[in-house]
Amino acid sequence: MLDLWAEERYEEALMIARRLVDEPGYWCAAAALATAHSQGLGGTERDLGQAERLHRRAAASGALTARYDLARFLLNQRQGEAAARREAVTLLADLAQARYAAAMLLLARFDPSELPPNARRDRPVLWIEEAARIGHPTALFMVGSFQYAPGYRGSAPGPRAAFERAARGGQPMAALELAHGIRDGRLAGEGSESLAWAARTEAMIVRGGVLYGEDLLDRERLAARAAAFLDEAPPESAAAARADARRWVEDEMSVWPTEETLPCPAR
Asked: Residue 173: which pLDDT band, with cuts at 50, 70 and 90?
């Protein structure tokens, strides 16, 4: 089911989800059906009420990803409802206590006064830094970017190390920043490395890897920027970099977090 879903073969995936939804342990079947109702995927009628019921059913399993999905649903589909916002913040705060890094990134968007006492930070950036210490790729990309800003005094690895860890974890924006930063002299590295990171950006997007719970809204623009970077190189060099990048994506990249994106048995 999960492989079919990743390939956007929604009708086939949902047929399996409907068979599994009542079996113990298959909360991801309810989550898939919830998303289908939320977005009208695979011929499913868009029904936000049913989507919420299915999200709550999945979240009742206690699975961290299901609870995160419910929080995102409440924030995105019930905007303007104070009770829904409070429930979402409480869910995110509990997830952050459980070291769920993606929830920390969402908490950073809220004013500290909105958070429960056990989740308050005097500066939202502290949530991002905490997620980076856990190793979340987007958080690492963000703290790497912060270090370009004058006066930043965070406790984080240097920008080169942060961007590389982020890229190796599946964050294509970090890979493209490595390409530009090395070429422009802002980051240490050889010229051939900049070409390699541009090709890896392109390969990551072609592969379709998006960090769980995140929407890479500028996929096409990011791919176009990587392609433009590669077009500046000699054709033979660009072709070699692209071939190596395809191998790198399959063999060396480790998309975060595997244990959260594939929590159900593969059926």
From this structure: very high
Task: Give the residue from 163, 144, 164 showing the smallest Cα distance to 154.
Answer: 144
Alpha helices in the chain (DSSP H): 2-6, 10-20, 27-39, 48-59, 64-77, 82-97, 101-107, 125-134, 137-146, 159-168, 172-184, 191-207, 219-231, 235-251, 258-261
Instruction: Say if CB 187 and CB 181 are below 8 A apart.
Output: yes
Could you give the C-alpha distances from 58 to 63, 71, 84, 241, in angstroms and in order? 8, 12, 17, 43
Cβ atoms of 197 and 229 within 8 Å: the answer is no
Q: Which amino acid makes up residue 163? A: F
pTM of the full structure = 0.83
Query: How many Å separate Cα 163 from the centre of its chain?
Result: 15
* pLDDT tens string 135-157: 999 999 999 988 876 666 665 56
HSE-CB of 161 using CA atoms within 13 angstroms: 6
CA–CA separation, 94 and 28 (whole Å) = 20
φ/ψ region of 80 (left if φ > 0, alpha if ψ in -120 to 50, else beta) reads left
Residues in the chain, overall count: 267
Helix pair angle (159-168, 172-184), 10° resolution: 140
What is the rounded distance in angstroms from the CA atom of residue 195 to the CA atom of residue 175?
A: 10
- Summarised one tens digit per residue, pLDDT across range 221-244 is 889 999 999 999 999 999 999 999
Report the candidate in 12, 9, 49, 55 with the shortest Cα–Cα distance to residue 33: 55
